[in-house]
Amino acid sequence: MFGTFQHSNLRIEIEASEQQISESLLCADHFRRWLAPQTFSAGLPDRLQPGTIFMSWIGPIAIRHQVDWVSENGLRLLMSQGIDGVHEWHWGEGWVQSNLEGVSLLPLNLGQTLSLLRLRQYLAGQQFARQVSS
Questions:
Q1: Contact indicator for 83, 102 with CB cutoff of 8 Å
Q2: Which 8-state DSSP code applies to residue 3?
Q3: Which of 21, 58, 66, 114 maximizes the CB count within 10 A of its CB?
Q4: Which domains does the chain have, with CATH numbers?
Q5: Which of 38, 16, 32, 13 is nearest to 123 (CA)?
Q6: What is the per-residue pLDDT across 44-102, written as a single tens digit (0 to 9) for each?
Q7: Which tens digits make up the pLDDT trace of 102-113?
Q8: Nearest to 105 by CA among 39, 41, 61
């Protein structure tokens, strides 16, 4: 693999419940929305589970993901091709943390930061939609 070894740990507060964050990270219908313009392979299960393998693309760069483990408040993805590394997610009531390390030509910290901001924006929109419909 070409590139540089990079690692980054980011944690942000999000006005969302642990359940809402969990659904956004583990359910394909949700993460396809907030991770756009990143695209994903067809045939993803409704909810990620250990052993699930899927592809994503950031423009022409393909990344293979394998779900290593899933818990009530965590997820670990093993990545190869465009990024050779590991991405762990942990979350709780009102917060989410992303730990990313790998070798890549891509600027991983920038992508990780943008992803967390998009997740926060997505969940804020979900919260707003719930308030409006109440």
A1: yes
A2: S
A3: 21
A4: 4-133 (3.30.530.20)
A5: 16
A6: 999 999 999 999 999 999 999 999 999 999 999 999 999 999 999 999 999 999 999 99
A7: 999 999 999 999
A8: 61
